[in-house]
Prior knowledge:
By secondary structure, this protein is α+β, with helices and mostly antiparallel strands. It has helices spanning 11-23, 34-37, 42-51, 85-89, 107-121, 137-145, and strands at residues 2-4, 62-69, 72-80, 94-98, 130-133, 150-158, 161-168. It has 6 helices and 7 strands.
Amino acid sequence: xxxxxxxxxxxxxxxxxxxxxxxxxxxxxxxxxxxxxxxxxxxxxxxxxxxxxxxxxxxxxxxxxxxxxxxxxxxxxxxxxxxxxxxxxxxxxxxxxxxxxxxxxxxxxxxxxxxxxxxxxxxxxxxxxxxxxxxxxxxxxxxxxxxxxxxxxxxxxxxxxxxxxxxxx
Length: 169
């Protein structure tokens, strides 16, 4: 297994993972979402986001990486290069998702470890904010296994619904 920039060799498996999320009743937006909105320009979109080109208002540059085994896509992580006030409250520097049919296999822990290394070594971030919903015990465990220390819990309203967000450094 390795953590790589998105590549065409793994695209079919990536699209299967997005379909698997939909079958599991989850929003495919947990993955980058580019497959639906720009099927012909998926990899250009990843590169534009990394370079900060053509981003919607309020977005920041982010690097997406894929955890793969050969040509099989296993998980995705997006590492935001900086934070906005909204990202400080809700999303933090790193967002990730493991394909639904590979949950419970330790991939999230491995993915986050690699993402933290990339954020520190490649992007030069000295401090990384990680978040998860208070009730998401799986994500909280992954963060804590990677050395995350709980800073606080914030009450938010996300998509019109109350939510408590756990924030870690």
